[in-house]
Design a protein that fits this description.
alpha/beta, Metallo-beta-lactamase, Chain A, Rossmann fold, 2 domains, 7-stranded mixed sheet, 6-stranded mixed sheet, 6 helices, 24% strand
Length: 332
């Protein structure tokens, strides 16, 4: 039903690609991150909640059709639907049904609570193509931590000393999640990089509550700040804009990678905030889908494949989806 090609995952019956790696005629997009959504395709299909983000990243004039979560539509001989992945706003798993067989391509996903996107939905299937960004047992984290309170307390402790707080985060998804968890706490504006600002507006237009922000591109660089929070990409400290910090600042990075790499990374603080599933949630999700066979992307030759096999599952790296593989013909 799905094979791997030089352009990415391809559904022959539907004549479409899922998150193609270059321009194609028909692209089914799981979400708007640049490693999944690329320019140049003739027609895009995505979840309705992600349309504005896709246009913000690829251009407002792209041809894109948005569908509600769970809404079924046909692409040639395949029935397709999008289901929440919990990764960022509008992120989706792609469910494909042909006859009585169902495949699901997960895209990127997480099971952690997040006020800025729809929660992950378990989609029963025969075959599950799962991501595995954190597909090793060393990457696990506490889901009960109040990350908004942790980040706010760090900010306020620095502010009490007249020190600025520089929080590095990816511009799409992570930055908005931070603003979402800070919304109940922040009493003043947070300064955001210009790459973050238009994406914030996409979230707000979808009814997502974010903490108040100001865009750094509208700030007088001759002014110096004290005790403020800056939400910026990691390149910020190498730009002229960083002069507004006045030399008094602490840095932090919000990422799942901080589960293993905190102070050794050179940051003053690390917040374990991931937009991907950790090891425990990867294994739990695969089990809950009831899939008879699993293909693992990213860390496809590593721990997750071996562990799933030890549980008696048919598990393979996604490279096994190349059509030249004879196992592909013996799936059912």
């Amino acid at each position: 039903m799905i094979t791997m090609t030089s352009k990415g995952l391809f559904c022959k019956a539907g004549n479409f690609y899922i998150d193609p790696m270059r321009a194609v005629d028909s692209a089914v997009i799981t979400h708007a991150h640049s490693d999944h959504a690329r320019r140049g395709s003739l027609q895009y299909y995505t979840a309705q909640r992600g349309v504005s983000l896709l246009k913000a990243r690829l251009g407002k004039n792209i041809s894109v059709r948005g569908y509600a979560y769970g809404e079924k539509f046909n692409l040639n001989n395949a029935q397709v639907s999008f289901h929440p992945a919990g990764h960022i706003l509008g992120s989706s798993q792609v469910r494909i049904e042909i006859g009585k067989k169902v495949w699901v391509a997960s895209g990127d996903y997480k099971r952690d609570p997040d006020p800025t996107c729809e929660p992950f939905e378990v989609v029963p299937c025969d075959v599950f193509i799962t991501e595995a960004t954190f597909g090793t047992p060393s990457y696990t984290w506490n889901k009960e931590v109040n990350l908004g309170k942790e980040i706010y307390d760090w900010w306020i402790q620095n502010a009490d000393r007249g020190v600025n707080s520089v929080l590095f985060a990816y511009s799409l998804g992570k930055a908005q999640r931070i603003l979402g968890v800070l919304e109940p706490y922040a009493q003043k504006d947070i300064y955001c990089h210009s790459a973050v600002t238009p994406l914030n507006e996409c979230y707000r237009e979808e009814g997502i509550k974010l903490a108040r922000t100001q865009c750094l591109s509208q700030i007088d660089l001759s002014k110096q700040f004290s005790g403020e929070l800056f939400l910026v990409p990691q390149s910020f400290l190498q730009t002229d804009q960083s002069k507004i910090l006045g030399g008094q600042f602490e840095t932090a990075f919000a990422s799942g990678w901080m589960a293993k790499n905190n102070f050794e990374s050179g940051y003053d603080r690390g917040f374990v905030m991931s937009d991907h599933a950790d090891w425990n949630d990867l294994v739990r999700t695969v089990k809950e889908t009831g899939a008879r066979r699993v293909y693992v992307q990213h860390r496809g030759k590593g721990s997750l494949v071996r562990h799933l096999k030890s549980l008696g599952m048919e598990a393979f790296p996604a490279a096994e989806l190349f059509s030249r593989n004879p196992d592909q013909l013996a799936l059912f």
